[in-house]
Every structure is written in C-alpha cells, then in structure tokens.
Amino acid sequence: MKKIITTQNAPAPIGPYNQAILVNGFLYTSGQIAIDPKTNELVTDSLEKETRLVMENLKAILAEAEMTLENVVKTSIFISDMNNFAKINKIYATYFNEETAPARETVEVANLPKFVNVEISAIAVK
Predict the structure, then answer these.
(1) What stretch or stretches form a coiled coil here (predicted)?
(2) Which helix (H) or strand (E) holds 121?
C-alpha cells in the first residue's frame, strides 16, 4: 500500500502529483527544483545556491519519511545546459559519501519547470 509523504519543509506540489510516495520500503520523490519552501520563491541567482536548495528540498522530503541521503539508491539529474555539469556535480558531491553514493544519471533537457537550471529526483530505500 502506498503512503503519501508531504512536508512543509519542501516546496508544495504545483500540479497533480505529491512530493513523494512510500511503497514497500521504497521512497520515490518527485523532481525538486530550487523553490524556497519558506517564501515559495524561486532561487536562481547562482547555480551553486540553486543546486544546494534542490538538495536541501530532497533532504527535507527524506526526513519526513524518516530517511536520510544515505538511504538514496538512485538519483536522476536533469540540467538545462551540460556546460553546468561540473558546478552542479561539485555541490551534489558534498551531499554524498563517494564510496556509498547512489547510482545516477544526468541528462541535459531543452527546458525544465519554471525554466530552472537543475531538477533532481531520488529513489530511497529503508
């Protein structure tokens, strides 16, 4: 049976989806962008700040499901420009232990919601 995971510490959904779904010990998060959950404002003044906020939003959702980034087994990173990969990867790397980091793909896309530079989703397991 699936359980809807919702927290006020991450951006509220802006469509027919939930922040995350927990089913059989697996947590599937929706893609997170750099919306500050306290102000509901988009943060794109620097790629580093934007990436950090995306990761913090993911952490908040994981925490609501009583998990941490250590529970993450897979991430999907969508970026608007592959030239930004190194900067995004540098921030992303600070959130994971390299030896136990999750599987991942990084894909350049034509556009992202609200024309952000980066969106990340995760799958975690208890």
Answers:
(1) none
(2) strand 118-125
Residues in the chain: 126
Amino acid at 107: V
Range list of β-strands (E), 38-83: 41-42, 72-79
Supply the CATH number for residue 120's domain.
Answer: 3.30.1330.40
Mean pLDDT in runs of 10 for the chain (126 residues)?
97 95 98 97 96 98 98 98 98 97 98 96 97
- Return the bridge partners of 103, or none: 74
Contact 60, 36 (CB under 8 A): no
d(CA 120, CA 52): 11
Q: 31: domain range? A: 3-125
- Of 19, 60, 54, nearest to 35 by C-alpha is 54
Neighbours of 8 (CB within 10 A): 10
Looking at the structure of the chain, the number of domains it has is 1
From CA 119, how far away is CA 88, in angstroms rounded?
10
Both structure tokens of 109: 């896309």
